[in-house]
Amino acid sequence: MATIQFLDAAKSMQFVSEYSKLVLTDVMQKAGIPSILITSTARTPADQARIMYENIERYGIDHQKLLYSRYGDQVIDEYSKYKSKKRHKQFIISMMKAKIIALDPSKVSNHVADPAKLNVIDIAPSSINPALRKLFVDVVQSDERVAKYFGPPKDPAYHLEIPQPEKS
């Protein structure tokens, strides 16, 4: 039986639909993976700014610019502008959040999109047996219900985007 765990169940579980759980369970069963850990789903603009800040600090500006479109790059530029002025962390995050809101959050990251239309799910690579990771990625990429996938080394997580079926 496939088990889906959540890093922060109280916050994230509500944003993964039964449909997406079915897709994930199917993928896990095909790849022989007993459990996964979901580390992130839908985000507020404040969450997105904080996570972008932390990832810039951890991986660097150039690496993070590979992940985002021109909109996300503008948010990263806010980080650069205020970091060079030696502003404190919370101020920089607040300026990044303001930029996200000004640009339209869903243009910066699909994590901030409407979860009723698109479930965006990050899975911790550490939750998958290293011997099964390639198979997991192959199964995800061949599943037509997953609209977009990217993962290591470009992204620190396995990032899946699953469009939600229209309700009739």
Q: What's the helix and strand layout?
A:
Blueprint: E1 3-6, H1 9-12, H2 18-31, E2 35-40, H3 45-59, H4 61-65, H5 70-84, H6 89-103, H7 105-108, E3 118-123, H8 133-142, E4 148-150, E5 158-163
Parallel strand pairs: 1-2
Antiparallel strand pairs: 2-3, 3-5, 4-5
Helix pairs in contact: 2-8, 3-6, 5-6
Strand % is 5-15%
CATH architecture title of the largest domain? 2-Layer Sandwich
**For the terminal residues, how far apart are their CA atoms?**
31 Å
Characterize the overall form.
globular
Biggest β-sheet strands, sense, barrel: 5 strands, mixed
In the sheet with the most strands, the strands line up as: 1-2-3-5-4
Q: Give the C-level CATH assignment of the largest domain.
A: Alpha Beta
Rg on CA atoms, Å:
16 Å
**How does the helix and strand content classify structurally?**
alpha+beta
Note the total helix count: 8
Q: Approximately how much helix is present in the residues?
A: 40-55%
Q: How much is the average pLDDT?
A: 94
Return residue spans where pLDDT drops below 50 for at least 5 consecutive residues. none
**H/E element string?**
EHHEHHHHHEHEE
Q: What does this molecule look like?
A:
The protein is α+β, with helices and mostly antiparallel strands. The protein folds into two domains: 3-42 and 113-163, Gyrase A, domain 2 (2-Layer Sandwich), CATH 3.30.1360; 45-109, no CATH class. The chain is 49% helix and 15% strand. It has eight helices and five strands. It has a five-stranded mixed β-sheet with strand order 1-2-3-5-4, covered by helices on one side. Strand 4 and strand 5 form a beta hairpin. Helix 2 packs across helix 8, helix 3 (45-59) crosses helix 6 (89-103) and helix 5 (70-84) runs antiparallel to helix 6. The chain is globular. It starts with a strand and ends in a 5-residue tail after the last strand. The model has no long low-confidence stretch (mean pLDDT 94).
